[in-house]
Write a structure and sequence with these properties.
Radius of gyration: 17 Å
CATH architecture of the largest domain: 2-Layer Sandwich
GO molecular function, one term: acetyltransferase activity
Family: Belongs to the arylamine N-acetyltransferase family.
InterPro entries: Arylamine_N-AcTrfase, Papain-like_cys_pep_sf
CATH topology of the largest domain: Arylamine N-acetyltransferase fold
Distance between the termini: 36 Å
Structural class: alpha+beta
Largest sheet: 8 strands, antiparallel
Pfam families: Acetyltransf_2 (PF00797)
Oligomer: single chain
Strand content: 25-35%
Shape: globular
Helix content: 25-40%
Number of strands: 13
Number of helices: 7
Organism: Streptomyces silvensis
Length: 264
């Protein structure tokens, strides 16, 4: 663990209370607070910076710099917090199978999520735009309802687990634990390869009390009970203002982004 790791500083960053014990109720509280305060954002990838998932890096980025990050950084940071509070947690490698618009084949180990062991096994994810608000019961075969929709875990004949959200297959994951450094090559690939599906693009998302606010390049989308509403942030000043308002990050400049007309 990071020698300078401050549990209270991390809890303050996400506006969470220190749990009395590492139980299911505490896990639900911490997951919800993380999703509502630390955004999923690929600014580093858009700027061709190579992130990593070490304790030192994710703590500095999330807590000290008050940034968000990609799935690997956010779930690595959350795992660091959970372990420090006494939870048994491991990282799992997955493959994203839907990009918000259509099915596609993401790279292996292109998604990182967590497996937490309590009275049963749970899947926890604070780094995915369509993540559940609460932990998903790994062995549950039926629908698990959540503020973010209906989730269903399907166990494949090969031993993998597939997650369906509102009927859409979002990802497939291998249930055995991995070391975080297993994902270093994938992080480098995402940040440097022009062949990556999202190369040079910016994605961001954060959970709100009524739903979710997402960004895809210059298109800002509000998701709520009444559906979704999207608009293009045409000027740099408007983009920087909205990015800071919703994702808590002040930009000195706006990355050179592809033109987009649809939100996520």
């Amino acid at each position: 663990m990071h020698t300078d790791f401050d549990i209270d500083a991390y809890l303050d960053r996400i506006g969470a209370e220190r749990p009395k014990r590492p139980d299911y109720e505490a896990l639900c509280h911490l997951q919800e607070r993380h999703l509502m305060t630390v955004p999923f954002e690929t600014l580093s990838f858009a700027e061709r910076e190579i992130p990593n998932m070490t304790d030192e890096f994710v703590y500095d980025k999330i807590v000290r710099r008050r940034r968000g990050g990609g799935c690997g950084e956010l779930n690595a940071g959350f795992a660091l917090l959970l372990r420090s509070l006494g939870f048994r947690v491991g990282a799992l490698g997955g493959r994203v199978l839907h990009n918000g618009h259509a099915p596609f084949r993401g790279v292996h180990n292109g998604h990182v999520l967590l497996r937490v062991e309590l009275e049963r096994s749970y899947l926890v994810d604070v780094g995915f735009r369509w993540a559940s608000r609460r932990p998903l019961r790994l062995t549950e075969r039926g629908v698990q309802k959540d503020e973010h929709g209906e989730y269903r875990l399907v166990h494949t004949p090969e031993g993998d687990v597939e997650m369906f959200h509102d009927g859409v297959l979002r990802w497939r994951v291998e249930p055995h634990p991995r070391d975080l450094d297993d994902f270093e090559t994938v992080m480098w690939y995402f940040a440097t390869s022009p062949d990556v599906h999202s190369a040079g693009q910016l994605w961001a998302s954060v959970v709100t009390e009524t739903g979710r606010v997402s960004l895809f390049n210059r298109v800002l989308t509000h998701h709520g009970a009444g559906g979704k509403e999207s608009r293009v942030l045409a000027t740099d000043d408007e983009f920087k203002a909205e990015f800071e308002k919703w994702f808590g990050i002040a930009l000195s400049s706006v990355p050179d982004l592809p033109e987009s007309t649809h939100g996520i």
